[in-house]
Design goal:
The protein is an all-alpha fold and 245 residues long. The chain has a domain at 27-153: Serine Threonine Protein Phosphatase 5, Tetratricopeptide repeat (Alpha Horseshoe). The chain is 83% helix and 0% strand. It is built from twelve helices and no strands. The longest helix is centred in the N-terminal third of the chain and has 35 residues, at 2-36. It comes from anaerobic digester metagenome. This is Tetratricopeptide repeat protein.
């Protein structure tokens, strides 16, 4: 019995503990870079979170934060129209998916892994096209991840799962698209978070597609607000939609 206990302690101090301590140190560096923001820092933080996840494969936090950082890197590259942003989304969206899946496997009852996995699929789709992502069988996994995150905590990251489900049902090509579901989720989101510019643009698009005088009037009001926001990517998007009405 004593020998077994000693062997367990040796494993703990020689194998487990060094990896855990190394991961914690790397995580602290990654957190600081992520908070600073900017494309370079986001990529560096993602790579550090991934490194921490490899140092401590049992760390749920390292896995979901790696997924989040890769997703945010892709998203900012796209929204800033960075050179080669589609290739960035293709390559690093897949990395975000991988670590999201790892987080889900480590703790399927937490919201973060499900949510950032689904968002990373969205980034990957930006890089390769929605149709390619569908051919790769990602529709059902994305849907279930967003639905699970909605079920666990739909208020996570200021209602992210609500907005994500609304956008998910809108961007699918016919005959998979369900604009009624998109409108339901996006109206729920807009009611809870009326000042979010991205949510305003997403809802306006779905209202325009639904048609009808009342929907178009509501869409115009949303786009007018979005068009004067400080986020150029969404203000430009809102102006384009207004010009087409």
């Amino acid at each position: 019995m004593r020998r077994i206990c000693l062997e367990g302690l040796i494993v703990l101090f020689v194998v487990v503990l060094p990896g855990y301590l190394a991961a914690q140190d790397i995580m602290a560096q990654a957190d600081a870079l992520y908070e600073q923001g900017g494309l370079d820092n986001l990529l560096k933080s993602a790579e550090l979170y991934a490194q921490a996840s490899e140092a401590d494969p049992t760390s749920y936090e390292a896995a979901w934060k790696a997924s989040r950082a890769y997703r945010e890197y892709c998203n900012q590259a796209k929204e800033s129209n960075a050179e080669g942003w589609e290739d960035i989304c293709k390559q690093y969206g897949k990395m975000g998916m991988m670590y999201g899946e790892k987080a889900i496997a480590l703790n399927p009852d937490r919201v973060e892994g499900h949510f950032w996995y689904g968002c990373s699929v969205g980034n990957y789709s930006d890089g390769v096209s929605v149709l390619t992502a569908l051919r790769e069988g990602l529709k059902d996994k994305t849907q279930s991840s967003f639905e699970k995150s909605y079920e666990i905590d739909k208020t996570y990251t200021t209602g992210g799962p609500i907005k994500a489900l609304g956008r998910f049902w809108y961007v699918l090509p016919w005959p998979l698209r369900d604009n009624e579901k998109a409108l339901s989720y996006l109206k729920e989101y807009n009611q809870a978070y009326p000042d979010d510019t991205e949510g305003q643009v997403f809802l306006a698009e779905a209202l325009i597609d639904a048609g009808g005088e009342e929907n178009i009037t509501q869409a115009k009001a949303l786009l007018e607000k979005a068009s004067v926001c400080d986020e150029k990517y969404f203000s430009d998007w809102a102006k384009r939609l207004m010009a087409d009405l």
